[in-house]
Design goal:
The protein is an alpha/beta fold. 41% of the residues lie in helices and 18% in strands. Strands 2-1-3-12-11-4-5-10-8-9 form a ten-stranded mixed β-sheet, with helices on both faces. A two-stranded antiparallel sheet has the order 6-7. Helix 1 crosses helix 9, helix 9 (275-287) runs antiparallel to helix 10 (291-307) and helix 10 packs across helix 11 (321-330). This is Isocitrate dehydrogenase (NAD+).
């Protein structure tokens, strides 16, 4: 039995977390939950958006699953997601993006790619400051160590999962030192994996190519900022953030997450889509080595989506969160 830190999150987070827990229990997933708080819920419970109790739980359990957290724009406390990644050195942001049955998209032939995003540096290092009253400066930090280890993770994943190509994302035509360093490191790592095709693409061109022909890509490898942008872009190709899982992985621990927002406008209405939380939980089970139960949960979810009879409003239906969870449970094999 695995003890996992569960951070339900803000807004719709508690509702989708409850749905996920019910499905996990019905599937017999060998998990016990330690409920902790962060974001607005952390402030409510402990007057702290990232309480020490939550950090201590993650340190002890080594694995966490979290719902969406409120991030204030332009003011207030630092992003909790960024703080968690920095605190636990969760250098690898992993976002599988795959078309699901029953989800209508612009790509009937299907999309199946994976985004590897370096998670600890670049413009998200937090090294920014004001210059007088009329200007501000942010530093773009790229290091060899961070670039090599995210590249290593991407190539190892590609090798283990039968992926044929890794594409490094950059803007080295303009940022020759920072993005140039990133590319030098990815090229070095690529040489160790001769069976995997390696190429490179400029970030703005990639955005266009993803919209026009996403099937061209397999594994995308990017520094932090570009990875953040293309992760959400890619989610839009397959139906949005409500049907895409995410993970933040380090050498000591991992945090899996529903990557969509808190959706305060529908919070408490029991109409949120629990798919992303379930898929993220499935990734967590894979990480723990519980691949059979993870596959059962995914198969049940895909069956419900394919049938199209029980879908939440974001998918065009009228079902509640509870309805969808119950339908998934009924389809567990």
């Amino acid at each position: 039995m695995y003890k996992v830190t569960l951070i339900p999150g803000d807004g719709i987070g508690p509702e989708i977390s409850e749905a996920m827990q019910n499905v996990f229990a019905a599937a017999g997933a060998p998990v016990t939950w330690e409920i902790c708080y962060a974001g607005q819920a952390g402030i409510t419970q402990y007057s702290d958006p990232l309480p020490e109790q939550t950090l201590a739980s993650i340190r002890h359990n080594k694995v966490a699953l979290k719902g969406p957290l409120t991030t204030q724009v332009g003011e207030g406390y630092r992003s909790i997601n960024v703080s968690l990644r920095k605190t636990f050195d969760l250098y690898c942001n992993l976002r599988p993006v795959k078309s699901l049955p029953g989800i209508k998209t612009r790509y009937p032939e299907g999309v199946d790619l994976v985004v590897f995003r370096e998670n600890t540096e670049d413009l998200y290092s937090g090294a920014e400051h004001r210059m007088g009253s009329h200007a501000a400066v942010g530093l773009k930090i790229i290091t060899e160590d961070a670039s090599r280890r995210i590249a290593q993770a991407a190539f190892e994943y590609a090798s283990a999962h039968g992926r044929k190509k890794v594409t490094a994302v950059h803007k080295a035509n303009i940022m020759k030192l920072t993005d140039g360093l990133f590319l030098n490191c990815t090229r070095e790592v690529a040489k160790k994996f001769p069976d995997i095709h390696y190429d490179e693409v400029i970030i703005d061109n990639l955005c266009m190519q993803l919209v026009v022909q996403p099937q061209k890509y397999d594994v995308l490898l990017a520094p932090n900022l570009y990875g953040d942008i293309i992760s959400d872009l890619c989610a839009g190709l397959v139906g949005g953030l409500g049907v895409v899982p995410g993970a933040n992985i380090g050498t000591e621990c991992a945090i899996f997450e529903a990557v969509h927002g808190t959706a305060p406008d529908i919070a408490g209405k029991n109409i949120a889509n629990p798919a992303a939380m379930l898929l993220s939980g499935g990734m967590m089970l894979d990480y723990l080595g519980e691949k059979v139960v993870a596959s059962r949960i995914r198969a049940a979810l895909e069956k419900v989506l394919a049938d199209g009879e029980v879908q939440t409003p974001d998918l065009g239906g009228k079902a509640t969160t509870s309805d969808m969870a119950a339908a998934i449970i009924a389809n567990l094999k």
